[in-house]
Amino acid sequence: MRLREVGILWVEKPEVMGREAVKLFEARFSTTQDFGVRLEHVEFKSMSEEASLSMVSQITEEEVMDVVWMCKGSKSPRPDDFNFNFFKNNWEVLKLDVIVVVHHFHRTSYIPKRCNASFITFVPKVRDPTSLNQCRPISLVCSLYKIISKVLLCRIKQVLPEVIDDCKSTFL
Question: Which of 98, 137, 138, 144 lies closest to 117 in space, CA to CA?
């Protein structure tokens, strides 16, 4: 992709494009505006002991399998070159290794660096984009990382109704 840096100057050097990408992300994800949100005198609901224990209980094979089957299998391969059809088609061979990785994370809160790798790429929003603003960034993450995060997400979804007021249903 070509990037228009200033006016009619076209830039194709990766290091210049990289600097422009950093500028774009800094502009999008930083703010100096105070939104005036204050949490004084706000009472938060608490989870029951049962819900709290469910959050830290051993992750089951069923939870992991449910997550694998909920993921679309034909999407592009992750940085580890495996899409979820691969996991589904080879589940009997892979399941023990996948579960060992998930249990290791659950015990240690550590994901090996090779499983935590991700790549950010830009997908054009328009035909023949001329600037990074005409692209949307997406992150490609490792399949094992995605499995772990979705297992945790499924657990959180189970307890959210307990900690978010009925009148705050927008959060759900």
Answer: 144
